[in-house]
Design the sequence.
């Protein structure tokens, strides 16, 4: 079953066990993947549901639901100060690692001001990465906002990665932990300003370290999520 190709659809495309494919989806299945009539593939709605489907042309027939459990057992939000370059690959890799929600933020030192087209691209990348990595869901990517405005959007345990100072390692808070929700904020090139750190602490973010070395703005969110995934899945 896992060798079948996967396609993300919207719930509105399903009616009476039939999937109405968009022209782009049909082109992808028939021309890119070379599927023929009656070939099977996996349809996923990005919200946790999978189905075995059969291609019938511009439509597909749902044959049966598929039960699968590939998500992290903890809801993980990453608040990421937008780097100047490389955010496409950040989105791809943290989607593969299991992020639940991505909140791009504009910090005091952020240089990138993304266009609506760029945001659409990030969402397409997340969809492709979710299909490739056999995710049950496609992570939500919010519109970029200021760092301070992101505080009201998160709940549960909250951490902000800080490269300077004598701060405890993130692992100290992950092992052991009964948290069901976790938020981790990673900074821009040059790091968070002191004002941003203070505002985050006022909003009950705990400052944490990712190690003794200074990581790039592109690498930090990947490392942080890798630590979370390693800890919460280690007892499987």
Sequence:
């Amino acid at each position: 079953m896992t060798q079948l190709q996967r396609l993300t659809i919207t719930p509105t495309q399903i009616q009476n066990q039939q999937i109405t494919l968009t022209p782009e989806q049909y082109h992808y299945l028939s021309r890119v993947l070379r599927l023929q009539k009656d070939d099977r593939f996996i349809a996923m709605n990005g919200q946790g549901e999978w189905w075995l489907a059969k291609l019938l042309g511009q439509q597909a027939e749902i044959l049966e639901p598929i039960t699968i459990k590939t998500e992290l057992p903890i809801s993980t939000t990453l608040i990421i100060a937008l780097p100047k370059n490389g955010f496409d690959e950040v989105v791809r890799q943290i989607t593969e690692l299991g992020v639940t929600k991505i909140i791009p933020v504009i910090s005091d030192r952020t240089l990138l001001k993304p266009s609506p087209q760029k945001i659409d691209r990030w969402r397409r990348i997340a969809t492709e990465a979710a299909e490739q990595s056999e995710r049950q869901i496609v992570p939500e990517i919010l519109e970029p906002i200021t760092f301070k405005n992101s505080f009201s959007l998160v709940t549960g345990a909250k951490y902000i990665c800080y490269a300077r100072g004598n701060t405890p390692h993130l692992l100290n808070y992950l092992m052991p932990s009964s948290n069901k929700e976790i938020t981790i904020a990673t900074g821009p090139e040059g790091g968070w300003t002191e004002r941003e750190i203070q505002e985050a602490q006022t909003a009950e973010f705990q400052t944490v370290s990712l190690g003794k070395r200074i990581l790039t703005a592109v690498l930090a969110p990947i490392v942080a999520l890798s630590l979370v995934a390693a800890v919460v899945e280690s007892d499987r």
About this structure: The domain at 75-233 is CATH 3.40.1280.10 (Alpha/beta knot). The chain has six helices and 13 strands. The longest strand covers residues 59-66. The mean pLDDT is 93.
